[in-house]
Amino acid sequence: MTIAMQDVQLALSHGSLQVDLWEIEPGQHWMIFSAYQHYGSLLGQLLSGERMPDGGDITGLPERVGVVSLAQQQALLDAELEQDETDYIDQIDYGHSVEYLIGECCRDSDQVEQLLEMLDLEHLRNSGFRQLSTGETRRLMLARALAVDPQLLVLDDPYVGLDVVHQEKLSALLSNLSEQMTLVLITARESHIPDCITHIAMFSETSATERAGNANVMTLSPGMTVAEFTSHPVLRQLEALSAERSDAVMALIRERQQLFQQAYQTQLTHALSQEQPQQGHAPLVAIRDGKVEYFDRLIFDQVNWQILPGQHWQIRGPNGCGKSTLLALILGDHPQCYANDMTVLGYRRGSGESIWDIKRRIGVVSSSLHMQYRVSCSALEVLLSGFYDSIGLYDQPSKTQVQQAREWLAILAMADEERTPFRALGYGQQRLLLIGRALIKQPALLILDEPYQGLDFVNRKLVYQVLNMIAEEQLSQLLYVSHHPEDSLPAIRNYVDFVPDGEGYAVVVSG
Ligand SMILES: Nc1ncnc2c1ncn2[C@@H]1O[C@H](COP(=O)(O)OP(=O)(O)OP(=O)(O)O)[C@@H](O)[C@H]1O
């Protein structure tokens, strides 16, 4: 049966989304390209029934619709945290197990086994939800969506967080699934178009003159073929727009840099001289024989790694190998950080240092931070919280800080959202704010663990260009994780690689 949207409208805080006519015929599989903002995700929510339109008709929707989205992942985390029993039991409650979370959506245990195998989750069946790495979580969400035997599967950014092997496996899986169900894929990655996609559409702004009296109406384009899409001039136009905007962001960063650099250099030199007074080139981070081990599993050991002044590093390796764990050690967020011999920004771990002295000079973007950012505060307050390294805002910011945060909001094209609660924003807008929060204080060290999650095309390119320029101009030192080859930053030439070794991974440092 044909799925159709006709004259569908959705009112948004600053404009509206409009679908004049969109028909998905049987056998068709659509990609909605997230060019700009989160309209693709909103369309996915209309299809899945998570949102109701303010006008128009949606017809032909099948009974069983499966959904994979970062918003759903956030909702599952919220539900899991509500049931957290850590305070009542004698151990940390990591949430329901992978097997349980898949099982609660399945018809029987055979289907659970089938999905565990299909999504490469068998070895994690007993792991709790909050123990999972980013890619492992993503595979769990895919398994839950498939468990309902969907006739329509809506995949919002399904490749996010998956390592290269699992990205390829997902493309092959989608090809198989396309023979049994209708697929609608929402993505900002023009390089990830699975073979099964037959049509591509995107939202574009309809001018006020075209649609009398209504500015900011985002309208779904007619469908095009993959070939028409890849040669479409709009991709080049969007790239030019992101380049223009990244220049504006860099102008703001450079303008502020002198001010920040003076303060940070003084603090950094002071801290480093306390640690190794004789050395002019003391490392920002040094880990000696680093090790993290859980009761049933060694994640890594024998990690010897130094980050020297001026160096930028990319950490590479498959899902679950320990990249985020290594970064959490540096940040002091991992319970085993004090069992390790390490020095961070001049402070020897366990020497009575304040964790805030270290965090003050580090900016972070990661899924784990995004998941923890669950407090109710406005978009402006999220940016301001970057000055205090807090989740939420508990200090009274100065007038200068408020002005700087407003400048950042404007440059991120989010000035209209100043008072919007963080959690009411789309996932991509939330992520963009968290990136601004990390950059606003222009830290000595920037930790970017898969920073692009949820970003639309224009903002992904913008952030990519800004990060590369920050590294090239030595405005901060970068520790960077991304699974996508196209995200490699030319300015990064040092690598920590997790390479398979027996049952685990060996860590190879090449700088
Ligand atoms: N408390 C825990 N007990 C046992 N295993 C854990 C615990 N916490 C995390 N893990 C496991 O540690 C491994 C490393 O996780 P980490 O988040 O560092 O992986 P990653 O390399 O960043 O993966 P991804 O690419 O998916 O983000 C994962 O397999 C995860 O399931």
From TrEMBL:
GO terms for molecular function: ATP binding. Keywords: ATP-binding, Nucleotide-binding, Transport. Residues 3-230, 285-511 form the ABC transporter domain. The keyword tRNA processing does not apply. The keyword Electron transport does not apply. It comes from the Bacteria. Transmembrane segments: none annotated. InterPro entries: AAA+_ATPase, ABC_transporter-like_ATP-bd, ECF_ABC_transporter_ATP-bd, P-loop_NTPase. This is ATP-binding cassette domain-containing protein. The lineage of its organism: Bacteria, Pseudomonadati, Pseudomonadota, Gammaproteobacteria, Vibrionales.
